[in-house]
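User: Hey, quick favor. My workstation is busy. Could you predict this chain's structure for me?
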Amino acid sequence: MTDTGPAPSSGTSPGTGTCPAEDAGTGADDGFGTGPEDEAWAIAERARACGGVAGLSGGLFGTVATYLPGRRLTGVSVNDRAVEIAIVATMERPLTETADEVRRAVTDLAGERRVNVRIDDIVEGP
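Assistant: No problem, here it is.
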């Protein structure tokens, strides 16, 4: 099951351009706070905004998720050691380029943690 969540607030629709967050610097102007809940949402927003990303995926059994008070964010799992992002990619560009762009887009939010980007599905268009 794919959870695409809210549309990116950057003005760029998913899978249609370059990732605007790559030039975002520290993430201080993302409009998100600094708690774990806000961090997970900011990571999801940046991943969705990257070129070649049609949406986020929870994985085969929905295990890639961040559990928040009263809700669940599918496609992003954040802990003290790593950030895992599961995406549905489009065929508009090489998959490695898409994964690398997502990784670069969230690196400043991840801090010292490892960022793992996995491609769970591929679709023909955005």
